[in-house]
Amino acid sequence: MRVAIIGAGAGGLSAAYDLTRAGHAVTVFEADPTPGGLGGGFREPDWEWSVEKYYRHWFTSDRDVLGLIRELGWEKNIVVRRPVTAIYYKEKFYAYDSIPSWLAFPGLPFPLRVWNLFIAGFFLKLNPFWKWMEAYAADDWMRRWFGNRIYDQVWKPLLVGKFGEENYRLINMAWFWARMHSRTPNLATYQGGMQAFFDQLAGRLGEMGVRLRYSTQVERMVAHPEGGCELQVPSGKERFDVCLATFSPHQLAAMASNLPADYLAKLRSLRHMGAVVMVFELSRRLSTQGVYWHNLPKDAGFPFLGLVEHTNFLPPEHFGGNHIVYCGDYLPLGHEYFSMTQEALQKRFLPALRRINPEFQPSWVKKSWLFKTEYAQPVPLIRHSRNIPSVRTPLPGLYFAGMSQVYPWDRGTNYAVRLGREAAKMILEDWK
Ligand SMILES: Cc1cc2nc3c(=O)[nH]c(=O)nc-3n(C[C@H](O)[C@H](O)[C@H](O)COP(=O)(O)OP(=O)(O)OC[C@H]3O[C@@H](n4cnc5c(N)ncnc54)[C@H](O)[C@@H]3O)c2cc1C
Fold it and tell me: Which of 91, 168, 208, 431 sees the fewest Cβ atoms within 10 Å?
């Protein structure tokens, strides 16, 4: 069988691995010049490790991606650390990533700290049943069970930050449960940076016979009702028995417009947020407390949602002794940040770094990079499982496995690997 996979991100590469092992001829089309998708990175000449374009770590509970790495025999390259995640309260940052830190947080009176720990730490962490929760808005459920004070202080800023004022009241509780249930304070990455993992995986696929066609944008796909699928690429049309698309639902609707109307409507009805992330290379450490992940409430006036000091997770020696800081935000498409220049955004962002470290000077910035994506975070509404388009599309030669289908889990490399492998399994079952 001839299979085309569109996208060399974690999902596409994982699917390619299983389909090739099963003896099929796989071609991966990737618009970028390198593999990795949203998980990819870049490297300056004096850095030993690459830096991810969008801040990134795995959790030690990410069984699918870590399992794939083990399966490939590269386990020794998994690096595990426990950096500090903090929340903001009255111009200061407090660690908020362990039972003692939750109990010590001054933003809540003592009995509420215990109540917060009980609901979030025990109920959401230990309860395995999520389905019923998708009938509730996280905003209502959390206000009711945590109480106004805890919700407003700790959890609401996360929801507003991720989904914006226009969406946060509509997000269902199962999505929030999944975050609390699956995440660990220990974080993992790959020796050399995540790009090293994607390069190594793509290299292995090449050895196995996969054709990896970088810098090749698929412009249109036509799947035929009687089977088979045709791709339009810049060099012409190419025909395959099966195509697997791993990008956004809106993109699939635009590119495969001969899908039946109800499936197209489902694709188009899904909402998502974009992301804008600026990466700074600084000559000095920013957080004197050594915080890795700063959660910033929008109403405190920061021009971004999250500040991540990568070199408080990994040593600056990997990056020529410099300090890597990300400032990022999830935004609705059409937000002004998408059209602002790097210079204008840098001007907007830099003054806020003084709130992290009052000694910060713009002269600490050695270099900066700006990354923008329109498809960064699916928006899971009430009873969202009904809205998810199936991996098997109604056209027999066309499959779809993207970030919007990993629900109730929050999008992540781990779930892209899981979904890519599930899609490969379905293709193998259907084309025995
Ligand atoms: C700001 C941000 C932070 C994140 N942080 C984390 C994190 O800390 N940990 C984590 O595990 N995950 C994180 N994620 C999520 C993670 O990046 C995604 O879950 C993962 O990349 C999804 O993989 P994928 O293969 O499904 O899609 P993608 O990575 O999006 O890959 C799809 C690929 O398809 C290609 N493509 C699209 N259209 C075409 C076309 N027409 N022709 C050819 N190629 C095409 C794209 O170039 C891309 O390479 C983050 C995401 C964002 C945006």
Answer: 91
